[in-house]
Amino acid sequence: MPSVNLSQAMHLIGWTTALSLLAGAIAFGLWFYPTFARSKPVPSSQTGDSSGPARSTRQDVRLCQVNPDKNETDTDIDIIAIHGLDTKSPGTWTWVDPNDPNNTVNWLADPRMLPSQVEAARIFTCDWPADLLQPSDLVQKTDVEIALLLFEGIKRDLLRTHDKKKVDRPILFIASCLGGIILAKALVGADYKCSSYYSLRTATRGIIFLATPFGGTSFEDVAIWADPGLTVWALIRRREVSNLLGWVKGSTFALEALVRRFTRLCQDNHNPCHVFCFYELGKTNLWRKVFPWLPASLPGWKQLVDMRSAILQIVLEPLPLNRTHRLMNKFDGPKCPDYKQVSGKILEFLTKICNGTPLAQADARIRNVHYSLERLKIERLSGDLLPMDRCYINLAIVDTTAFPVSLLARLNVETPDKTIEVTLPTLFEPRKSQDGQKKQPSRILIRGRAGVGKTTLCKKIVHDFKYNNLWQGLFNRVLWVPLRNLKVEKRQSAGYNFRDLFYHEYFSQDLEGRELSEALWRALKDIKSGRTLFILDGFDEVSQGLGGDMSVFLEELLNQANVIITARPNARLPPRLDPLDLELETIGFYPDQITAYIENNFTDRETRERDLEKIKEVQSFLQRHPLMQGLMRIPIQLDAFCYTWNGFPREGVPETMTAVYKAIEESLWKKDILKLQKKKDGEPVTGDQIKKASRKKIESFVEQELRFLECLAFLGFYDDVIEFDWKLRNAVSDRFASDLLLDKDLPCLSFLRTSDPSSNDQDRNYHFLHLTFQEYFAARYFIRQWKDKQQLNCLQLSRDNCNNMEPATFIEKYKYDPRYDIFWRFVAGLLDADNMALDFFQMIEKEPRDLLGPTHQRLVMHCLSEVERKESNFTGLRARLENQLEQWLLFESDFTGNSKLVHEMECPGQVLSNVLTQASEGERTVILESLSRRTAVPLNIIEVVSPWLTNRTSARQCAAILRMLGNQDNNLPDKIHQSIAARLEHKDRRVRRAAIEALQRRADLHDQVLQSIAARLEDEDRRVRRAAIEALRGRTDLSGQVFQSIIARLEHKDRDVREAAIKALRGRAVLPDQVLQSIAARLEDEDGGVRWAAIEALRGRADLSDQVLQSIAARLEDEDGGVRWAAIEALLYQSALSLDVLIPYIRSFYDALLQKSFREHLYCVQHNVKEVVRKLLLEKGAANVNDGRRRLPSTLSC
Fold first, then answer.
1. Do the Cβ atoms of 672 and 702 come closer than 8 Å?
2. How many Å apart are CA 961 and CA 981, to the nearest integer?
3. In this predicted structure, which of 171-175, 490-494, 516-520 has the lowest mean pLDDT?
4. What is the percentage of the chain residues whose pLDDT exceeds 70?
5. Residue 1150 confidence (pLDDT)
6. 64 touches 154 (CB < 8 A)
7. Which first-to-last residue range defines the signal peptide (predicted)?
8. Alpha carbon distance, N-terminus to C-terminus of the chain
9. How far apart are CA 739 and CA 766, in angstroms?
10. Which distant-in-sequence residues (6+ apart) come within 8 Å of 73 by Cβ?
11. Is the dihedral of CA 108, 114, 116, 122 positive or negative?
């Protein structure tokens, strides 16, 4: 019996072991079934022997970028996600719908998820050799070796993606499960400067751990029976279990030591690393993993990695996720609460990593997010982007004395005097204030009409400050604040302040937004933190309608020390506004900018080939139509004109402003019909279908939109409203176009613009492309009602008060109102297109009439300019109206000695021609003097007046003709040039001067003409000599003979001639040494004015010899104070000044120099002259002042 019992016992033990092994194998087969199902054995040896044991397919480390549209240049940080044990990418990060395996979401790659939230980052997944079953024919890698391989692979692959071969870009790691342990091991191993991977260590700025088992896992509870089964399973597959499994069974001494070293690494003062831990709340039933058929009520549900194991002590507030361990790295969409937790922490870390202090974070957030190229882009009507280097914004000092009469003056697009132009780089340079003192402006107001570019100006300032270092020495930051945002309902809170403004404007989407707002506010108060420039855009939009605390805050905002305020011309500034230092206005393009814009517009984007024929056609058209040329100085008008040009009929380019606007309207509707997705017979309209559609057909597609625009324009124009908020838009839509879906349709309309397309519809204000487009559509509404014999709906939008009016009554009431001037032009032009101009002009001619006359004649003249000259029922009335205008011009010229109507572009050429031939000598002279102030005169007028350039014509009349010809941009025939040149010898000084000025602008003057101008340097009249100087100065086409004739006059007996010759040579880049010596000889001239001119001509030149500089220095003892001062300035700005030049005159030099400021005088009292000179020369970058040859005598002192 004993032997039998022993045998049975041995047999029982064998079966128990076998069952245990079998149970373990089954358990792990079920547990790791997905992995095994995916794994396929591969040949073990590199020779291809397939009979050997299987080997893992993942023995290397690979990075894979999951947002390939991002590159190094448009990002500033890398995110690298590392998977855990026995998995790989992208499966680790991919959620699979249990009901539909084809429905998957990879939160690292899905454009709705992390890529959309981290625009400034590249996202990578990192695969590493993490197979649970390893090849049995190889010695297994240790954890240290795997950690080294991890960093080697990351370093290698990052180098491939870096254009500059650098791996020091900041890195944020996302580590799942055991991947976090391997990453920590790699970082600890690289934490010394001699390491090959030290650059990766310092580049690592943050890590997000997802259920990383810093204290082991609950796997240790089943390891006693699972290990044998797993070993059997590995043997069956000709592999062996990975040694890494030991790291997850439970806490070990090695794991605890690693955690301690890693914690110290993260707290390093020089290279800190932000860390955060997420842990699971979901439980895993280990028994049901083995036996799925067991009841769910069976005990054994546990967290695989519990909170105690998943957190580090330095993470004070770890967060849980409501999911099991298997789903800790998988999220089903952007609305998943757990995903929001993880992605929110990632964004928080990115902010902390990319920026330092809260203030630096705030500045970086504004620069990188709010001032991104996407937000600063300027889009043309065509949809193409306008490069910033071709963005022309012209500013000019406001002329408060001018009263706008002409169309171009009303639109503020007359070519301004260059002397009042202010460029952006010089905006804050010192200039004379109203009290005559020189002051650096810090509070600036910029006015501008719609379409001239105020918002574009703001974008240009922000762009150039960020990318081109504009004003970097003056300001630390530029804060662009669209003031319309102050009207947003959610901002209407008691005690609104700068913290609230910064939060709402810049940081409302940041988790730490309040902290950033506070930091920015503290910087604003603390002068040591640097100056802040506010750009307060659109004051006119908040000048009314704000009350309470918001009104008080607006006043505080406007009174900031450094501020640029933009506003419409009619905006009234608050009475308690602090004084402004400078008031400017945005003005239209200059002629050369129009030319550049046209050339760029008709240049192929890819080949850069210009369409020279089309460019010539456009420029020729504008030269023939001075009024249109003036209108094209408005940026948005020029953009629309160029966009529409291809749609103009070849045989008939529009001749009037109204016709051009009609063509622009038609062209833009064709584009908008496609954007609005209009349909014909149930099918979307195509571009080919709409391209050749008639105007009637086009209007049928957009009937509701067109009616809405007409009513919106007219009601706004009638009530003096140009910004339409959502209440006004809805009021108009409900009354006149109720079928429109404003939220959907308005963004598709090219005729309307919103300053903030990114905001909610209720927060947006819309305005027309330009005020003239609003006037155009308002005129369309007027004509619609006129034709339909309906009253005008004169609803006052601001007060919801309706006052209907007959069109005839409306004309009587507003025909002389200056605000309606362009409106009536469009009415006349649109009615003329329908052959209804006769009725309109008959209505204008009715009572009441202007008692004095000029206002009525101006109205008639302006409206006539929009009516094409053709045979119609209007021909007879037109002739009578033009005859009345002729009689008025003659009367005005005779009675007032002036003719304001002649000065306007709209004055008909035929009327001018008739008046000039009928007028008396005195009347003709007055009219010609008025014409001389115009920048363009019809060719038929030039043909009429040019034959009068004879000696028989009075000097006053001849000078007026010359000034008129000199103002013309178009090329004049050679015959007229010869007539002008012949007047250079005229006996009257006014004629000679006018002839020189008329020739000055011509680039192709004959040598004989230049000789004649040079001869005027000897003219007896000072103004004529000055005109000759200006005409010759800077010309590069002077022949040797002309040049020598100027030089010869340096020795002229008359002081005025010598001075004129010097001034004519001043500013020329290249002058022969002989000429420089001749000018230098004039430094000894008997006349102080000539000596001063000689110094000014030599000032700033780098090609002066020591002998010439010595001669300038000798003028430090000149008897004339102005000459001494000129010598000081010339020497101060001479970059290569030798002390040998100054030594003989050093006391005189500083006696004069110290007069410049009391501050410099004090410096000289406290220091000896030698130190003063050394300081001066060092500041100027002159030669080494310690050179023995140039050392000053130590005895010199103040």
1. yes
2. 13
3. 490-494
4. 80
5. 59
6. no
7. none
8. 130
9. 19
10. 163
11. negative
Amino acid at the residue 459: K
Residue 91 CA to residue 1002 CA, distance in Å, equals 75
Residue given tokens 């094209």 in the structure block: 632
From CA 1060, how far away is CA 1030, in angstroms rounded? Answer: 10
Residue keyed to tokens 């000259």: 869
Pairing of strands 421-422, 394-397: antiparallel
Side-chain half-sphere of 495: how many Cα atoms within 13 Å?
1
pLDDT at 524: 82
- 898 compared with 707, residue with greater pLDDT: 707
Please say whether the beta carbons of 1092 and 1127 come within 8 A: no
Separation CA 323–CA 330 (nearest Å)? 10
Q: For strands 239-241 and 133-135, give the pairing.
A: antiparallel
**Single pTM value for the model:** 0.59
| Helices marked H in 1033-1145 | 1040-1048, 1055-1065, 1073-1081, 1088-1098, 1106-1114, 1121-1132, 1139-1142
Query: How far apart, in whole angstroms, are the C-alpha atoms of residue 728 and residue 765?
Result: 10
793-825 confidence digits (pLDDT tens) = 887 766 666 788 999 999 999 999 988 999 999
Per-residue tokens: 293: 């058929």
Nearest to 460 by CA among 387, 363, 541, 568: 387
Long-range interactions of 1040-1043: CB distance < 8 A, separation 24+? 1041/1007, 1041/1011, 1042/1007, 1042/1010, 1042/1011, 1042/1014
3-state helix vs strand vs coil in the chain, percent to 5: 55, 10, 35
Cα 619 to the chain's mean position, in Å?
28
Mapping DSSP to helix (H, G, I), strand (E, B) and coil, where does residue 1077 land? helix
Find tokens 């022309």 and name the residue. Answer: 392
Continuous segment of H or E residues that includes residue 134: strand 133-135
Q: Treating both helix axes as pointing N-terminal to C-terminal, what angle do 807-814 and 771-787 enclose, rounded to 10 degrees?
A: 140
Q: What residues contact residue 531 under an 8 Å CB cut-off, 6+ apart? A: 474, 475, 476, 561, 562
Are residues 830 and 775 in contact, defined by beta-carbon separation less than 8 angstroms? no
Residue 9 pLDDT greater than 60, yes or no: no
3-class SS of residue 122: strand
**E strands present in 350-454:** 394-397, 421-422, 431-432, 438-439, 443-447
Q: Which three-class secondary structure state does DSSP give residue 752?
A: strand
Q: To 5 degrees, how large is the angle CA 799–CA 802–CA 804?
A: 150
The residue assigned the tokens 């109102």 is: 817
DSSP assignment of 433-485, as one string?
Answer: -TTS-EE---EEEEE--TTSSHHHHHHHHHHHHHHS-TTTTT-SEEEEEEGGG
Q: Which of the residue ranges 372-381, 648-657, 661-670 has the most confident prediction, judged by mean pLDDT? A: 661-670
Specify the residue for token string 């509870």.
221
Task: Please provide the size of the chain in residues.
Answer: 1198
Q: Where are the alpha helices (DSSP H) in 478-561?
A: 498-502, 513-525, 548-558
What is d(CA 245, CA 237) in angstroms, rounded to the nearest whole number? 18
Mean pLDDT of 921-944: 85
Cβ neighbour number for residue 921 with a 10 Å cutoff: 10
Residue type, 732: V
Hey, which residues does 481 pair with through a beta bridge?
Answer: 536
- pLDDT, tens digit (0-9, with 9 covering 90-100), for 134-187: 888 888 888 888 999 999 999 988 887 765 444 457 899 999 999 999 999 999
For residue 1184, the 8-state DSSP code is -
Residue 481 in tokens: 């604040």
Quote the Cα angle for 874-880-881, to 5°. Answer: 85
Q: What is the DSSP string of 1120-1152?
A: SHHHHHHHHHHHHT-TT--HHHHGGGHHHHHHH
